[in-house]
Specification:
Layout: H1 32-97, E1 111-120, E2 123-128, E3 139-143, E4 146-150
Antiparallel strand pairs: 1-2, 1-4, 3-4
């Protein structure tokens, strides 16, 4: 076989161009300053929402307290009615239990509204507006001229 003449590759005349060996990654995301700015913005927004929510929560708490204060007389009246009903039931039961004991008097309980006739220092004399059925011992609690007596 005859030897064929092989043409060898050679660099182009003037040589190859420069080889780019540096990292050539595309820019992704925000710069450091912009990320810092976004973080500060989110922080300010979060604090603003927090302060607004605390103000709203404080307003709701005040509203709840006002509702409790408004309902307190009703709840106190219901409690007083329940207490008086229990006291009356206890006295009725006492009368049933002690009916065979001679000289036993069941406590007379009546609630009446009294008006203060005169005031001597801290002692007040009260006159009952409602006529009592029986002779009772009266305990009065006077507030600004009107007394509530439990007899």
């Amino acid at each position: 076989m005859a030897a064929s003449k092989v043409k060898q590759d050679m660099p182009p005349t003037g040589g190859y161009g420069p080889v780019d060996y540096r990292r050539n990654l595309p820019r992704r995301g925000l710069s450091g300053y912009s990320m810092f700015g976004v973080g500060v913005g989110l922080l300010v927004f979060g604090y603003w929402r927090l302060f607004r929510w605390n103000r709203e929560r404080r307003r709701l708490h005040i509203e709840e307290l006002e509702a409790r204060v408004a309902l307190l007389p009703l709840l106190q009246a219901e409690h007083d009615r329940r207490t008086l009903r229990m006291l009356r039931e206890n006295l009725e039961e006492e009368a049933v239990i002690m009916r065979d004991v001679p000289d036993w008097k069941v406590l007379c309980v009546c609630v009446c509204v009294c008006v203060c006739v005169r005031e001597r220092g801290r002692e007040r004399e009260c006159v009952c507006v409602r006529e009592r059925e029986r002779e009772c011992v009266c305990v009065c609690v006077c507030v600004s001229g009107v007394c509530v007596c439990v007899c």
